[in-house]
Amino acid sequence: MGIAIMTSGGDCAGMNPGIKRFVEYSIEKGLKPYLICDGLEGLIDNRIQPATHADVAGIITKGGSVLRSSRSARFFEPEYRQQAYDNLKAHGIDMLVVLGGDGSFRALDVFYREFGIAFCGIPATIDNDIFGTDYCLGVDTALNVIRQATDQIRDTASSSRRAFVIETMGRDCGYLALVSALTSGAEICLIPELPYDLDSLKKRFQAEIADGRTYMIAIVSEGVDFAPQLTRWLEEEVGMEARLTVLGHTQRGGSPTVLDRLRAFEFVTIAIDALVTGSNDGVVFYKNCQMATRSISEVVSGRSEISPVYLEEGRKLTR
Amino acid sequence: MGIAIMTSGGDCAGMNPGIKRFVEYSIEKGLKPYLICDGLEGLIDNRIQPATHADVAGIITKGGSVLRSSRSARFFEPEYRQQAYDNLKAHGIDMLVVLGGDGSFRALDVFYREFGIAFCGIPATIDNDIFGTDYCLGVDTALNVIRQATDQIRDTASSSRRAFVIETMGRDCGYLALVSALTSGAEICLIPELPYDLDSLKKRFQAEIADGRTYMIAIVSEGVDFAPQLTRWLEEEVGMEARLTVLGHTQRGGSPTVLDRLRAFEFVTIAIDALVTGSNDGVVFYKNCQMATRSISEVVSGRSEISPVYLEEGRKLTR
Amino acid sequence: MGIAIMTSGGDCAGMNPGIKRFVEYSIEKGLKPYLICDGLEGLIDNRIQPATHADVAGIITKGGSVLRSSRSARFFEPEYRQQAYDNLKAHGIDMLVVLGGDGSFRALDVFYREFGIAFCGIPATIDNDIFGTDYCLGVDTALNVIRQATDQIRDTASSSRRAFVIETMGRDCGYLALVSALTSGAEICLIPELPYDLDSLKKRFQAEIADGRTYMIAIVSEGVDFAPQLTRWLEEEVGMEARLTVLGHTQRGGSPTVLDRLRAFEFVTIAIDALVTGSNDGVVFYKNCQMATRSISEVVSGRSEISPVYLEEGRKLTR
Amino acid sequence: MGIAIMTSGGDCAGMNPGIKRFVEYSIEKGLKPYLICDGLEGLIDNRIQPATHADVAGIITKGGSVLRSSRSARFFEPEYRQQAYDNLKAHGIDMLVVLGGDGSFRALDVFYREFGIAFCGIPATIDNDIFGTDYCLGVDTALNVIRQATDQIRDTASSSRRAFVIETMGRDCGYLALVSALTSGAEICLIPELPYDLDSLKKRFQAEIADGRTYMIAIVSEGVDFAPQLTRWLEEEVGMEARLTVLGHTQRGGSPTVLDRLRAFEFVTIAIDALVTGSNDGVVFYKNCQMATRSISEVVSGRSEISPVYLEEGRKLTR
């Protein structure tokens, strides 16, 4: 029984530990594992090869994905999906494990309904915005990359009496920014989920500066799209010299933390177990500390939300 | 209403973020926060002082505990517990938050029954061996310290065709060693919870070496007390040059990871909420992804256990 | 004999180890050490205090400067320099150690000629652009911050088949960018010191991409002011999806590396020795592996240059 | 013209950047590069293969050596050296670059005198004990591994009021220990090069403890062979609880720092230039900030020494 793995959409840390676990556990289960390179594009172009232990030797410590990833426009077209199916059939593959985001899951759900190739999706995106799961692969590593950068910036902020605005990734989800703010002692945090009050912030900080505050850290989620403006506002309205740092793609990389390696291990184990026992349309969720599979319709049925406890605390950083 | 915090027993990362959250949240709740230095010894010797925001500025990034910790023999004696009580009374403190291990919780339980000072314990030990909670503060940071060291050792192991034995902490609990082994691709893992079969391991590795294996990583928990012997066995029986690295106290230190900062935040918030609402004998547990308080009798009623899923996987590394 | 230290201009790692060495060595030499906060601004506003061992306990591991830094417009005006002098006289300080850039050295040279306060400057700037010295404090730590970020970006670049442009600091000096490119295997490096040929680069990379190259790293010095344009050029002309990361102020921070701590120790030792033996207008240089003092006129007499060996190698990354 | 590279003796960071530079620069110079695996043992057993760019893609960030290393007993015997020579002749290789220690240089010097195969040695050992050169590859990375571990231990030392003894590598050279002590603020440092006075240390620390000192860091070089005894002495004589951490082989690993990558680049460039211009018995030294070749007889003519400036400062940590 052939089973294949691909990493799709945006890349993140944890994918490589997942690929390693995939190969080892598949072999343990008496399956024939295959690797698909370059995500859906590679599925279309038959970049599919049998996998051995040697293929995954040493990759557990590496960030990103050795299989690479892609966003595929061609997969939207039936002829290319037919091609993808023909490729899988030729290799004798009838089960797919996919590490990626909900976009990839939807695509494979369509594929499943057309061709019957069972798949199990593993939520993997540093944005942590897939509905139904408390955790997406890559988030812990991204948070710790942000933490290191924020600690470095704090050194220079405190030495130069400046305000620093740090823009994090997240698409439309403020999780990375909010958790980073709560765990770094930032003074301001702007995320899409919460309204903010600049006048209130201005009053508060002018008072604190008069009272001795010498520097400040503000963390802004990219989804708010306000980091440069906030930087200018800090200089012009609040009266503190300010600098902006856009953290960028360092947030996608880095050797996976232990948590991301562990979750990758668990996600992939559950995914393969589910496929082997006949599950054919599912996504693995991590909810209430349990790994379980859910149907794709659940994933697309709602918007992910940040815990109210964090949001409650985050409000204080918006006014 | 006076509320005080102490860190007790072995120190670990996450204690400082917890202390910071304690001061800020206490003030938010209209309480008067106090800091007790040097754990139970400091409680006896009145090293108690009122806390301000300035006391906790910048500590969120620091490993260890700025309040320091202690193991107290004197606290076992009633006269010193009386002294401790008198100190608290003099300061008007009637609530205690304690970050530490079950030893500290038991001591404060006795203290509560004698003097009625309510306390809430927060499990904090890198050994992750407190019954009832899935997570103890400090574990994630310790795991990532081990990960970095293991990655460094892997460089030299692969370059010198050697087997490396790495001894981790854990007291009698193999959690640190097992999770480290599973997330680093180690070939052998010995922990107190699992029997091991040296003959089986010898057969397996002699075959793998004949087949091309050039190096090996073995992770041994201190509770097994076998690391030096395993190192000798690798050289004499398996036939691969071997070296031992005892990781030691680096595992206790390091800037707290984001997860440890987040859990510290959550643990302390729940602890203060519980005390304020009249709970007077409890420990905060993190179970099934929820923070909740439980009575001390639950803590001492059983032995912590590692998840069967991990143990199952761990067995393969023992034979 | 009073001797004071200040950190001036841009902050950098290594300043804190320098401040610690200053206090300890001054005391050893029988001098009375003073700390000046906030650079020249603090000198004007009398933020001067006697220093003790306690002031510098634990700072050796910290990035930035606990004394903070400033760029002073007021110091250009004679009345404020008079005020500064009066402050020093009041404290009995007649020797100054200054960690900063050539701007600070020039200011203190003027001050010396007016008031006779001997100073010794220590080159400290991550840009590494002070003429006469091979090494400026802060450079090694900045290079390793860039290295970590580049390694993280390489993970995602290789996983997503993209070209990544990384903009580093440096003002008008390409040292940070060039050394980073040479030690990270970057494919392109644009610095102010070297002309570049986009057509030649385009030909070369289009051939390499046809031949199998899947991703690319380009490092651009801020002094070239071309990073966004290069990013667009990569997408539009070379035909590879491209992203830009501006590393920003993380390059100023971070716990000082061993080299920066060692150089700080050496720089400060030489500076104090020079002042004690009557030198009254000098800068400490690190040249040919020796620490030696030179007069300020030497510093301002030329432009720093990057080693021809590095430039030679760098040319290959411009065409 | 065939030129080959091997890494020999103990492994260290910087070897991989050196191997990468070797392949690229050899090709640039119109030479045919070869890789020898497993040091002298591989030379004997013909583990020699032609090198391509693909062989060294991505290795610049990796610790250790992808060619691995060995200590060869067989190379002492003429028949095996003959075998080694025959292997090189068969491949058309008449130039060797060797990254290793003086033991490897001596062996290849004998080999050169017997068979005329020119070699250029590059000093590579974390012990930094090769006479004639100020710098050996791998030292900067090792120092920063020690720094991180020492910072982690400082967290727990200060939290638990303990003295910590940290044993570093170094064979008979105290460089690693001494520089680590000077740049981490350690209170005690014992190295082979300096006598120490326990009575004096005891008096001093008993006074400091009475005066408020709560913890202590001692760094001991393995060459002194006294770390466990010092630990006991601290508890029994000085009266402070003490723990020992032997840093072990983590000191050999880790991604090479920028300095090690840069020196590797420079060392290899000079080595290949020297061989190409007809030098046939030499070692590359880094002295007074210059790379230059010297004859092997110079290397073996003396013992390396630590700078008197560092030793002077180190004395204060021995009594």
Automatic annotation (TrEMBL), chains A, B, C, D:
Entry's localization field: Cytoplasm
Keyword terms: Allosteric enzyme, ATP-binding, Cytoplasm, Glycolysis, Kinase, Magnesium, Metal-binding, Nucleotide-binding, Transferase
Enzyme class: transferase
Residue ranges occupied by any Phosphofructokinase domain in the UniProt entry: 3-274
Keyword tRNA processing: no
Pathway annotation: Carbohydrate degradation; glycolysis; D-glyceraldehyde 3-phosphate and glycerone phosphate from D-glucose: step 3/4
Entry annotated with the keyword Nucleotide-binding: yes
Cofactor(s) the protein needs: Mg(2+)
Protein name per its UniProtKB record: 6-phosphofructokinase
